[in-house]
Design goal:
With 213 residues, the protein is mainly α. It is 71% helix and 0% strand. Helix 8 (146-163) runs antiparallel to helix 9 (187-212). The model has no long low-confidence stretch (mean pLDDT 93).
């Protein structure tokens, strides 16, 4: 599947889950995560026809600018920072394979950690992102394909998301709730999971088509 089609699918899934993500954030945060993200990804979807001739690095850079300009709150800055760092990695590459994706993803996670001053286990988007990345890396290190890597990542991202129910938030507005944040999913971990799941499904569909052909 062409990369812009995958991005289009991500934009759609964020839009479709706007209310769900907003409700999660209403329970422990500002109540605007879904609304904010959807606004940014709707702008990205509208600009996709103008990105057909851009490189992968340029696409990520453009997405980052659109998120920065249209998404309020911390999520826009965090996702945009990740995309900017990812774009910088891809500028140095001539091909896009599983190892390049792993290297890019690692740098994107680093950007989120640096911008958010967070680590694994603090009830943030990293609780989906880091386990997913680790599962992806483990799979491709055993000669797994890009599709197989993301299938493993999807499951680990879901496990990481579900684990946020049992974490007391120490970052962001949710940290103000202390122990009252227990029992709630983190909205950033949820949006990250939805993106990873969408990529996984798109790659699985592509792999199936290639086998048929």
């Amino acid at each position: 599947m062409e990369r812009l089609e995958i991005i289009k699918s991500i934009c759609q899934v964020i839009s479709d889950n706007k209310d769900y993500l907003t409700e999660l954030d209403r329970e422990i945060g500002d109540g605007d995560h879904g609304v904010n993200l959807a606004r940014g990804f709707e702008k990205i979807a509208a600009e996709l026809p103008n990105m057909t001739n851009l490189s992968a690095a340029e696409v990520l850079s453009k997405m980052a600018m659109l998120l920065m300009s249209n998404v309020g709150g911390a999520s826009g800055a965090l996702y945009a920072s990740a995309l900017i760092k990812g774009s910088a990695v891809l500028k140095t590459q001539t091909t896009l394979n599983a190892q390049v994706v792993a290297d890019t993803w690692q740098q994107m996670i680093d950007a989120i950690q640096q911008r958010g001053k967070a680590v694994l286990g603090e009830k943030t988007m990293l609780d989906s992102q880091i386990p997913a990345y680790q599962a992806f890396l483990a799979e491709i290190s055993q000669a797994g394909s890009l599709s197989q890597g993301f299938a493993a990542a999807e499951q680990s991202a879901l496990d990481g998301l579900n684990a946020t129910r049992d974490i007391i938030a120490t970052k962001g507005r949710a940290s103000y709730l202390g122990e009252r944040s227990l029992g709630h999913l983190d909205p950033g971990a949820a949006s990250s999971y939805l993106m990873i799941k969408t990529i996984s499904e798109a790659l699985a569909e592509q792999a199936t088509k290639e086998k048929i052909c």
